[in-house]
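Need residues for this backbone.
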C-alpha cells in the first residue's frame, strides 16, 4: 500500500489495526496553514478507552465521542468538546432481494418490516443509548434538514400494531431475524436495545457481530438477512437516498426495486427546482415508508473531544476533521 496523495499531507506508513501516519507535504499550495509536521490516526474501537487516552495525554483529539461519555468530557477542564448535527442516518437495512438470503419472509413481506418498525421506540433509543444527544429518525434526512418531510413524523412505538402485522403475515407465534452488526461498542449497545424492544412484539433478533469491512462485503454480496448500518450523509439530498433506493443504485444492498420510486428519485436528481425536488422526495417517502427496505432509527450528532491546548478546529456536519488552521499550544 503506497497511495498517491495531493493534499496537505502525504502517506508515510500504515500498520494494520494499529496506526496510519501522514507527514506534511511542504509543497502544498497553502502549507503554511497546516501546523503539524505529522499526523497519526489510531483505530481505538472502544469509546471509553478513546476518552481515557485523551485524558491521559496519549492522544490529542478523538472523533465520535460517545454520547454516554459527553458529561465526563465536558466536566474535564483539560478537554474541549465540539459538535455538529450529522448529515446522515443510522438504520437497519433488510435484504429484500439480494440473492438467496433475500428470499425469505422478511424480504418478501413488507408487513414484517413494518412490524419491526412499530416495535421500536426511537426516542427511547436516543435517551437510553445516546443520553438524548442524538435525534430520533425515520427518514434519510435529519429532522433539521429542509428535505425532511413533515408528512411522515417519527412514528410512536405500537407493540400491539406490530403483533397485529405479524399475525396478518402468518407469524402470530413470532419470527426470527438475524441482524449483523459492526463489532464496536455503540452498534452492539443499540442492537441490544432494539433486540429487547422487538422481543416484546414477538420478533426474536439474533445479533451477529462482524468486523466492519467483513460486514460491508457480506452486505454487498447478499450474504445477510438484515444489517445495522448507517450513512455519513451528503449535503445534497440525492446522496442520501438515490443510490440506496433506486433499482440500479450503486449501494442498494437491499436490492429493493420499485419503478415509481425510480421515476421519482430520477426526477428529483434532474431538477434544479427545489419545490419539485421536495415533492418528489416526499412522494417517494410515501412508498418507502410502506416498503421499508431500510428501517431508519436515528440521526447522529458528531461529537469531538480535543485537548484544550488545541485551537482552530471547526466542526463540520459531514464529520470530517479539517486540519487547516489548527494549532496546539505547547504548555
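Answer:
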Amino acid at each position: 500500500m503506497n497511495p498517491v496523495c495531493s493534499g496537505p499531507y502525504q502517506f508515510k506508513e500504515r500498520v494494520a489495526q494499529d496506526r496510519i501516519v501522514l507527514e506534511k507535504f511542504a509543497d502544498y499550495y497553502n502549507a503554511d496553514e497546516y501546523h503539524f509536521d505529522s499526523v497519526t490516526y489510531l483505530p481505538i474501537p472502544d469509546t471509553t478507552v478513546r476518552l481515557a487516552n485523551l485524558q491521559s495525554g496519549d492522544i490529542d483529539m478523538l472523533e465520535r465521542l460517545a454520547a454516554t461519555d459527553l458529561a465526563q468530557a465536558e466536566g474535564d477542564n483539560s478537554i474541549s468538546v465540539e459538535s455538529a448535527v450529522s448529515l446522515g442516518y443510522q438504520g437497519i437495512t433488510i435484504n429484500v432481494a439480494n440473492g438467496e438470503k433475500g428470499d425469505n419472509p422478511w424480504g418478501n413481506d413488507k408487513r414484517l418490516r413494518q412490524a419491526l418498525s412499530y416495535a421500536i421506540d426511537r426516542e427511547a433509543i436516543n435517551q437510553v443509548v445516546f443520553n438524548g444527544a442524538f435525534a430520533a429518525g425515520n427518514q434519510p434526512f435529519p429532522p433539521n434538514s429542509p428535505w425532511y418531510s413533515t408528512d411522515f413524523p417519527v412514528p410512536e412505538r405500537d407493540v400491539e400494531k406490530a403483533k397485529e402485522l405479524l399475525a396478518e403475515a402468518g407469524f402470530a407465534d413470532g419470527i426470527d431475524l438475524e441482524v449483523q452488526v459492526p463489532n464496536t461498542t455503540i452498534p452492539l449497545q443499540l442492537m441490544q436495545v432494539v433486540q429487547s424492544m422487538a422481543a416484546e412484539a414477538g420478533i426474536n433478533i439474533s445479533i451477529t457481530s462482524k468486523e466492519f469491512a467483513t460486514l460491508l462485503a457480506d452486505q454487498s454480496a447478499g450474504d445477510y438477512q438484515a444489517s445495522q448500518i448507517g450513512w455519513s450523509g451528503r449535503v445534497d439530498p440525492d446522496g442520501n437516498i438515490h443510490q440506496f433506493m433506486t433499482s440500479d443504485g450503486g449501494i442498494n444492498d437491499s436490492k429493493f426495486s420499485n419503478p415509481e420510486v425510480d421515476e421519482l428519485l430520477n426526477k428529483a436528481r434532474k431538477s434544479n427546482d427545489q419545490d419539485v425536488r421536495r415533492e418528489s422526495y416526499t412522494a417517494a417517502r410515501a412508498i418507502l415508508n410502506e416498503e421499508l427496505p431500510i428501517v431508519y432509527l436515528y440521526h447522529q450528532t458528531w461529537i469531538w473531544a480535543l485537548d484544550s491546548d488545541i485551537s482552530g478546529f471547526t466542526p463540520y456536519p459531514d464529520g470530517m476533521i479539517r486540519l487547516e488552521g489548527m494549532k496546539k499550544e505547547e504548555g
